[in-house]
Write a structure and sequence with these properties.
With 484 residues, the protein is of the alpha+beta class. It is built from 8 helices and 23 strands. Among the domains are: 130 residues; 32 residues, no CATH class. The longest helix is centred in the C-terminal third of the chain and has 22 residues. The radius of gyration is 35 Å and the shape is elongated.
Length: 484
């Protein structure tokens, strides 16, 4: 129904209905159909516009709202509200034969609802009281866009919980590839959208109650993101991360010819066992502790970032175990084979316990060097040192376990001959085909020489002490040092 008052410059159109059909590339031949209805009121004299009872409907999708406009012919300003009633995007897409995204959980996209209040000015758009429900997730906040011609974005968002893995493509068993070739192929792809980041102006805060992504879980998260003039700064804090805390800062600078990257990350009091299991799918490590990293690099590809990586790392874990390898059993089996005996069957777990595990490392141009690995247990002390080539993905490392007690702790018995003698275990080769070697024969020979030296010293200090001419005893001890 159309009504007009030319003298007052006012027009109204009530119960307006438009039938819409959207078609084109990527859409089904029949197109997507919808109906738009509203009541329109226009006052040209006052330069006002009012839209009431706005409703866009398409099958189960219903978007309703109202809009008010001022100075619409000169410097238009609009405000209003929109509400999307709860519906199923999955069912709606199926009704129009639209392609559905492949998701690990086929039940996602079952619920979507939204509500917001908006205000617009010629150089500004504000979305306020934004609320959205996506399946079991709720998100609230506000968003501002300033100067659409050279946009700057501001936002504050609160997300209660989300399982990102449900929305990712389902896992597909892929044929095995050569690790080196795969790494090289992926390592040459550009990582950063440099031109976009140079123009990006962003200032926002995101809070998340709980999240699961790539099977990693975290809670009480706060992320602050700022970007301006080609410099991106991200500050993240995780209040609960596997019973501990995680925090870090990332700075990316794309102003120059090559992007530069700086990362500071630290974790404390985390339960490493559940974390490693969620990350790798394997129960390989346990313990409580943390780490810190201060790293920097430059480059646009993964290979360049590896080659330019510099910085330092530290870690400390207590009361845990390295699973999959029993170092004491390995030493006993090697000793038995060297003696021509068959290794005895054992029911002890395939793990090496530790009461303390610490290490630090320095990285220079993609080469990681560690000199101070230390692991302690009631019967064992382990020192380690070596290098890791992050670019070539290879390792050259020596672990030196020392038996300190053969009566206490995990598996110390049967190793009396090795007590106090370092047993070097050399690990070398590419990550995909790592090789290890123990020269236990040399170790046992050193053990026997040490015992013989100890016996001779005792005799010199005991039975022969009063029978040797003055000074000869000290000369003999000096000679023993030369022999051993």
């Amino acid at each position: 129904r159309l009504m007009a008052d030319p003298a007052q410059g006012s027009f109204s159109m009530e119960a307006l209905e438009l039938l819409l059909k959207v078609s084109g590339e990527g859409l089904p031949k029949a197109g997507v159909k919808a109906k738009l209805s509203a009541d329109l009121y226009l006052n040209q004299a006052q330069d006002l516009l009012e839209v009431k009872n706005l409703l866009l409907s398409s099958e189960d999708l219903r978007l309703s709202g109202a809009i008010n406009g001022q100075a619409i012919s000169s410097a238009p300003r609009f405000d209003g509200q929109l509400k999307l009633a709860q519906f199923s995007p999955r069912n709606w897409m199926q009704k129009f034969d639209l392609p559905l995204p492949q998701t690990a959980d086929p039940s996602v996209l079952g619920k979507l609802a939204m509500a917001l209040v908006f205000e617009t000015q010629p150089q500004r758009i504000d979305l306020k009281n934004f609320e959205m429900q996506l399946d079991e997730s709720q998100i609230k906040g506000d968003f501002t866009l300033i100067d659409p011609a050279s946009p700057a974005y501001r936002f504050h968002l609160d997300l209660d919980k989300i399982d990102v893995d449900r929305y990712l493509p389902p896992a597909v068993d892929k044929p095995e590839k050569k690790p080196v070739a795969s790494s090289k192929d992926s390592g040459d792809k550009p990582l950063f959208p440099v031109e976009l980041l140079r123009k990006l102006k962003l200032d926002g805060t995101l809070r998340v109650g709980s999240i699961k992504a790539n099977n990693i879980q975290a809670e009480a998260i706060k992320v602050v993101i700022k970007s301006k003039g080609g410099q991106l700064h991200i500050d993240q804090q995780v209040g609960r991360f596997y019973n501990g805390q995680l925090k870090g800062v990332l700075d990316l600078n794309v102003k120059g010819k090559q992007p530069t990257l700086k990362i500071k990350q630290s974790a404390s009091k985390i339960q490493a066992g559940p974390l490693v299991k969620d990350l790798t799918g394997q129960d390989r490590f346990d313990g409580v502790g943390g780490f810190s990293a201060n790293l920097s690099s430059r480059g646009q590809t993964l290979t360049q970032l590896k080659r330019g990586l510099n910085g330092n790392l530290k870690m400390e874990f207590l009361n845990g175990a390295v699973k999959g390898v029993n170092l004491a059993k390995m030493l006993r089996d090697a000793k038995a084979r060297l003696s021509g005996k068959k290794p005895t069957n054992s029911v002890e777990p395939e793990q090496t316990d530790f009461s303390e595990l610490t290490a630090s490392a320095v990285i220079r141009n993609g080469l990681l060097t560690n000199k101070d690995l230390l692991a302690k247990s009631p019967f064992l002390r382990v020192n380690g040192s070596g290098r890791v080539d992050l670019v070539g993905e290879s390792l050259d490392y020596v672990v030196r376990p020392v038996i300190v007690s053969t009566t206490k702790g995990q598996g110390g018995e049967g190793l009396d001959d090795l007590k106090g003698i370092p047993v070097p275990v050399h690990l070398k080769g590419p990550w995909s085909k790592l090789d290890w070697n123990i020269d236990l024969g040399k170790v046992l020979a050193e053990s026997q020489k040490a015992k013989l030296k100890e016996t001779l010293n005792k005799k010199l200090d005991g039975q022969l002490k009063d029978k040797l001419p003055g000074g000869l005893q000290d000369k003999l001890k000096g000679g023993l040092k030369g022999l051993f």
